[in-house]
Write a structure and sequence with these properties.
Helices cover 69% and strands 0% of the residues. It is mostly helical.
Length: 209
């Protein structure tokens, strides 16, 4: 008898929904590249994906949500939670981050790079993305609190989550393509500095330790 606790593969309905969602996203990103974000309408995206406008809104509440919905975040959270309990919070985040990015296909890399570039270059998308940092801090706080056995409302937990998001922002603002190998190296380097306790006023570089 199969173990009911074993994760089952998605059924036909779930696979169909996943395909429709992916088609909407892929056609939207293609249209954004070809004719610009502002010039692309929900009707055009739905038509390209061969679905109705109402179907579009069942998957995405708005055009901007197609770009701002981050499919990598849930994978990252799961990867961090899967790390050995003896790892510290930052070490677990760095290991989880590496495992997720190492598993991404070239197509997934290209899609995420396109999404990051679009957010960076479209002012209205960038403005909403900045507002979402609070959501990201809350998500990270949950993971950090779990590993530390502390409350998500603990200020120290939220402060560390905010610092991690700050490292990601700093890395994304450096010259060079976003979500590239160089960006990931900078992100990991910044998290290593944070993990070591190094900061500008300490007078010591973590590489000297």
């Amino acid at each position: 008898m199969p173990n009911s606790s074993t994760e089952q593969p998605p059924g036909l309905r779930e696979r169909k929904k996943a395909r429709t969602r992916a088609a909407l996203r892929d056609h939207a990103m293609r249209l954004f590249r070809e004719q610009g974000y502002a010039a692309t309408t929900v009707d055009q995206i739905a038509e390209a994906a061969e679905v109705s406008q109402s179907t579009f809104f069942r998957y995405y509440p708005s055009k901007e949500a197609v770009v701002l919905t981050d499919d990598v975040d849930p994978l990252m959270v799961a990867a961090v939670r899967a790390q050995p309990p003896e790892l510290g919070p930052l070490a677990a985040i760095r290991a989880g981050m590496r495992s997720v990015f190492d598993a991404m296909t070239p197509e997934e890399w290209a899609r995420e790079r396109d999404r990051a570039e679009l957010i960076a270059t479209v002012p209205e998308l960038r403005a909403v993305a900045i507002q979402q940092y609070e959501v990201a801090i809350g998500l990270l706080s949950e993971v950090l609190a779990e590993r530390a056995g502390r409350s998500t409302g603990d200020f120290a937990v939220r402060a560390l989550a905010g610092a991690i998001i700050g490292v990601a922002i700093a890395a994304s603002n450096e010259p060079g393509p976003r979500l590239s190998k160089g960006f990931l190296a900078l992100l990991d380097e910044g998290l290593a500095h944070l993990e070591s306790g190094w900061f500008i006023g300490s007078g010591a570089d973590p590489s000297d330790r």
